[in-house]
UniProtKB/TrEMBL annotation:
It comes from Jatrophihabitans telluris. PROSITE patterns: FLAGELLA_BB_ROD (PS00588). Pfam families: Flg_bb_rod, Flg_bbr_C. Keywords: Cell projection, Cilium, Flagellum. Belongs to the flagella basal body rod proteins family. This is Flagellar basal body protein. Residues 88-133 form the Flagellar basal-body/hook protein C-terminal domain. The lineage of its organism: Bacteria, Bacillati, Actinomycetota, Actinomycetes, Jatrophihabitantales.
Amino acid sequence: MSLFSAINISGTGLSTFRTWIDSLANNIANVNTATSTSGPAFQATYTAATALPGAENGTGGGVQADTSLKSSATGRLTYQPDNPLADAQGYVRLPDIDMSEQMGNLIMAQRAFQANAAVIDRAKQTYQDAINIGKNR
């Protein structure tokens, strides 16, 4: 595997984990989005990563993100009689998003993004060191 391959693979990782972080941020921002009980609740989006085939043995091509996965629109009924969207009994529909799960996933995505950025930085530094070998003579 060449250093350029390492940069390309880590680049797909950066893109995938950025997509995951964006999805998690959208879910966290809408955790308290209320809707009427007659309509669907906000649907959280989830990101799945798929391995891409590479040139070497069909592996090592990186990853690709898919954010088409959505949670159920059922949500949970919450008693908020002061909410303008509340029904006659005082209930609104909130999304069924687990905030602790979202925050845990956000930390994992952030660490993975940082790891991929570190790989790119190390590969770039290795190339720079190789160029400097010939300059010092």
